[in-house]
Amino acid sequence: MKIIDIIRSPKPTLSFEVFPPKTSQNFESVRMAIEEIAELEPDFMSVTYGAGGGTSDFTADIAAGIQDKYGVPALAHMTCVSSPRAQVRRVTDTLKDKGITTVLALRGDIPEGFDLSTANYRYASELIREIKERGDFCIGGACYPEAHPESKDSFADLAHLKEKADSGCEFFTTQMFFDNAILYNFIYRARAAGISVPIVAGIMPVTNAAQIKRIMAISGSALPQRFVRIVDRYGSDPAAMMQAGIAYATAQIIDLFANGVPAVHVYSMNKPDVAEGILKNVSAILGKNFA
Q1: What DSSP string describes 128-168?
Q2: Annotated catalytic residue within 17, 126, 146, 170
């Protein structure tokens, strides 16, 4: 089953993102954490991909293992900006051989000092078209409710998003956000711009205060005062911050489902306890039996 079929199903869906190890030395410990998440039987899982394809073999192997061993549909991320065309084609063929039918096509971050004029791919839309030509893949893409940091403005950002949809992107997963009103406004503007594909809400449970600096560096996401107060109050207590972070993310997810958002993708950071905590909190809403 392709991921788009799951997202379009009449019931709400909850999925998790995991990431492969950077080196083979810690492959086993990462694999075990990922398998613990797979044992929770989410609707699907996504596996990230290092810049330039640095973890492409791990990505393909982990995604295939999730599907084959646990029966959990998997999608593999693929970035392209610093990858040679031959590398992208090799990875695409590997995914096809391993039975991975859904790919999240991303431009990826531009490495420091990289000359973009030498790139085989400058935009995610180019990667989307390439993947479409090489197999019967379902292709997803990324979107930014608060606009991509490199976009001139929100109108230009939506124009680029429309181009990705027109290139064959079948759904979008959002960057993390902490105020649901931002997402609702973004969905309204996307629909007005002619973007009709499903938009999956990406949620990041913040379970330690150190994550905040990284989140701001990556996304520049707006932080509501109620969220800031939680971090200020509980950030120095790991157990309390874990509980508060899961509770805040849960509240976001429940509100999203209640307002008709069909699918939520949780950036679980390879933390089985976080994934389990979220799933327990919304299991009845999802119609799942959770022992």
Answers
A1: HHHHHHTSS-EEEEEE-TT--TTSSSHHHHHHHHHHHHHHT
A2: 17
Residue 62: predicted pLDDT: 94
* Exposed / middle / buried, residue 162 (Cβ in 10 Å: 0-12, 13-18, 19+): middle
User: Which helix (H) or strand (E) is 34 found in, with range?
Assistant: helix 27-38
Tokens at 71, concatenated: 């029966």
pLDDT of residue 145: 93
Nearest-angstrom CA–CA distance, 18 and 38: 10
Distance, in Å, from the CA atom of 56 to the CA atom of 59, rounded to the nearest integer, reads: 5
Q: How large is the angle between the packed helices 56-70 and 85-97, nearest 10 degrees?
A: 10
The C-alpha atoms of residue 169 and residue 129 are separated, in whole angstroms, by 9
Contact at 8 Å (CB) between 190 and 183?
no
Tell me the one-letter amino acid at 95: L
Whether 276 is catalytic is no
Burial class (CB in 10 A: 0-12, 13-18, 19+), 259: exposed
With both helix axes pointing from N to C terminus, report the angle between 272-286 and 27-38 in degrees, rounded to the nearest 10: 10
3-state secondary structure of 39: coil
Structure token digits, residue 182? 């931002």
Structure tokens at 222: 């707006």
Enter the pTM of the model.
0.93
Q: Provide block-wise average pLDDT over 10 residues at a time, the chain (291 residues).
A: 93 95 84 95 92 72 95 93 84 94 86 67 86 92 88 89 95 96 97 97 92 71 89 93 97 98 96 97 90 62
Q: What is the dihedral of CA 190, 193, 196, 200, to 10 degrees?
A: -10
* Nearest partner of 130 among 109, 105, 111, judged by Cα: 105
- Residue 261, H or E segment: none
Question: Around 100, how many Cα atoms within 13 Å sit in the side-chain half-sphere?
Answer: 30
